[in-house]
């Protein structure tokens, strides 16, 4: 799971960095030239590359005190190891 990848995504060349450590699997995603933020479609594409269809991963919006923005055009997906993430009832996710 650890590595740096250039992948043809739905709308262009994506730069992906993946890692696992300290109990987490993590993927960061940006366009190769970092000219814009990845779309929902891009993030779904990347999720499917790194995790199974039946796995839940999250994009966190941390509290302001913990917020770090090293580059405004990078988004992240996270999955804790060995812990089931709570999810809302399916009926609430429209």
Concise summary:
Helices cover 12% and strands 33% of the residues. It has one helix spanning 40-50; strands at residues 3-9, 12-21, 24-31, 75-80. The termini are far apart.
Any descriptors?
1 helix; mainly beta; four-stranded antiparallel sheet; Streptococcus thermophilus LMG 18311 protein like; 4 strands; globular; 33% strand; 94 residues
Rg, nearest Å: 14 Å
Kindly report the average pLDDT value.
92
In DSSP terms (H or I, runs of 4 or more residues), the helix count works out at 1
CATH architecture: 3-Layer(aba) Sandwich
Percentage of residues in DSSP E strands: 25-35%
Number of strand segments: 4
Q: Which consecutive residue ranges, at least 5 long each, have pLDDT under 50? A: none
Specify the oligomeric state: single chain
Helix content: 10-25%
Domains, number: 1
Question: What's the CATH C level?
Answer: Alpha Beta
Structural commentary:
- This protein has one domain (3-92): Streptococcus thermophilus LMG 18311 protein like, CATH 3.40.1720.
- The longest helix is centred in the middle third of the chain and has 11 residues, at 40-50.
- The protein is built from one helix and four strands; from the N terminus they run E-E-E-H-E.
- The mean pLDDT is 92.
- It has a four-stranded antiparallel sheet with strand order 1-2-3-4, covered by helices on one side.
- It is mainly β.
- The chain has one helix spanning 40-50; strands spanning 3-9, 12-21, 24-31, 75-80.
